[in-house]
């Protein structure tokens, strides 16, 4: 059995298969309650989830374990991951828990934790919880019967989150005259479209009818072409596509052209530099960000600091370097002035603010960054052997890098949540980039399966 439950973004897997089982969730509640119950007074835990059918299973199991350990549990229902981060701080809770598998299909689910300051738990804390959950000899330090916890339903959590989001743009600003298409991925953000309506925009909402089984199903940030078609059909100014837990954003301009996180980061970073709000003129992103973003920042006197893949690593680097803006190509965008984690709705508000201030169509503003051709391919693997320990893989990468002649790059990495290796190649010639990607993917399939 794996001695570490947690990947780069909590634990995740198929429902009713280890580790996503009710008994593991119960033990997670017991273990996290044990770790975060400091002192004799009652402690608070905020639990939120997305719209997956299995959310009821894990919400109940976690609540049982936490209450048994003397923790009071505040259930806020389906809300985006960043809302739970905010509410954990806002409600002075000791711990926040999100039940979600983000962009994965409904058959999967996951559990991730936030500390009282709204940041994801440090590895050593996760390791301590993992050890307790997996230990066959673990003895639980149960409190006296009169000191077990209570569970509460918080009915106004959605309203608190919306008010908080509104404070991220100037009070006098409104979005009157803008028409927005919002795709909620049938996920945690399905009921939040009126945020933009309250700010004056005309909103066409899709992916807002979750049934427990249709989250991320041909909608949301994984299928931005859906919102793109709707934008063209409705003659809208912008399309916004969230993922299942609402922490990432992919954008479509008024022509239906899809913009990824790199292009959004370029627009926001330049705007922040113009307003002298980008500390150190530093943007933090991951190794997956396009080389064009690095060139973009350098040409403007700024720097791009790269991290491993995962928004938690982006946030860690931002905190260490004092940076105020960072994100991922996949659409996680972190505005540290307002949030401790990626937030799709917050990012949308910041982008809409720029549209209003510049009074230009998104297609014109997005021309700031023209990405280099980049191809990403996923390969199912049975073994996650370090790539450097497989000679033929190392030799093949070096061969491709030599062929790119310094005008491109190769990146191989394993998914932190799936049995998948990701192959990425960038370069000036798309045909060659696709060919190199296919070649490397084939080599991984032959040697790691």
Write the layout of secondary structure elements.
Layout: E1 11-14, H1 22-36, E2 43-49, H2 55-68, E3 71-78, H3 81-90, E4 95-99, E5 108-115, H4 123-134, E6 151-153, H5 157-166, E7 179-183, H6 194-198, E8 202-206, H7 224-234, E9 238-242, E10 249-252, E11 258-259, H8 261-274, E12 282-286, H9 291-299, E13 303-307, H10 311-321, E14 325-327, E15 333-335, H11 344-358, H12 362-365, E16 374-380, H13 391-404, E17 409-414, E18 420-426, H14 430-448
Parallel strand pairs: 2-3, 2-4, 3-6, 7-8, 7-9, 12-13
Antiparallel strand pairs: 1-5, 4-5, 9-10, 10-11, 14-15, 16-18, 17-18
What gap, in angstroms, lies between the N and C termini? 20 Å
CATH first level of the largest domain: which class? Alpha Beta
Tally of DSSP helical segments: 14
- What is Rg? 22 Å
**CATH homologous superfamily label of the largest domain:** Alpha-D-Glucose-1,6-Bisphosphate, subunit A, domain 3
CATH topology of the largest domain: Alpha-D-Glucose-1,6-Bisphosphate, Chain A, domain 3
- Give me the side-by-side strand order of the main sheet: 1-5-4-2-3-6
